[in-house]
Amino acid sequence: MTELISKFIPIFILLLTGFLLRKTGLLTKNFVDDIKKLIVTITLPATLFISFLTMELKSSYISLFIATIAYCFLLFFAGIIFKRSKICVHPYSEFFYTGFEFGMVGVALFSSLFGAENLYAILLLGLGHELFIWFFYVPALQFKSEGKLNILSVIRSFLSSPLIIAILSALLFNLSGAFEAVDKYRITEGALRAFQMVADMTSPLILLVIGFQLKFEKTGLKESFKLIGLRLLVVWVLGLLFMFITDAYIMKLDTLMRNAFITFIVLPPPFVIPVFLPKSEKKANQFYNNALVIYTVVTLILYITIMMILA
Hints:
Number of strands: 0
Strand content: under 5%
Helix content: over 70%
Radius of gyration: 19 Å
Structural class: mainly alpha
Distance between the termini: 6 Å
Number of helices: 15
CATH topology: Na+/H+ antiporter like fold
Largest sheet: none
Order of helices and strands: HHHHHHHHHHHHHHH
Shape: globular
Number of domains: 1
CATH class: Mainly Alpha
């Protein structure tokens, strides 16, 4: 328990630092946007590259990738059902029920608590999730908001993404045995150390950015909590079922993998939702921005509580 608390303290300090940097004006939104670009294009790809490069790959992981995608689809359809039942009606709400902010929250939380060397556990869930996001979630959200869809643009964005390039190249080196062939050389060792130094910046930078973005609006709080509560219900019911099926039929889950599942399930929806909303829909933009901030705080509270109980 004491060890777990000591691991949570740096997370809180970095979040608080980001929050205070915004309050004091020492960091501007434009500068933080540049930090986010740095994370997405350099530090996070370096983290994913090293993890997938050194990961032990098993045939059972293919079934896990497929199951993760199926889980995300189930959440999406559950969102449609809730929307049509008039329980909680908001434009684009079906996109709030599914998807997880894996890169900007999941990686930071899991690596902070369980170490970068164990990041592979949650990445096994993250790979299937990223395929779902790129080839269904983003195109569907774009089509709903703009009324059109460019498949070639989606494929180009996927193949040119630094995150995808890092994952695919690492998997290629891993599966082909090329990494093992050159791992013994000093130059390779030096290059990996450089990648690791860059990767080590990922979690602190992400936590600073999250802290900076913790800004609440008072409007629409009741509806935000209602939508968040419904998502939590659906995500956890189907998520625990997903974990049970994985353990029973796909692969036996050790403690680390169970923690990876819990971390994954507790994550907030993707932060890209407001990005694809038309600028003309100001109320929807404000609502989802606020709901995502609140959900992020709920995520941190739930995560700490659950991990403390399980410790």
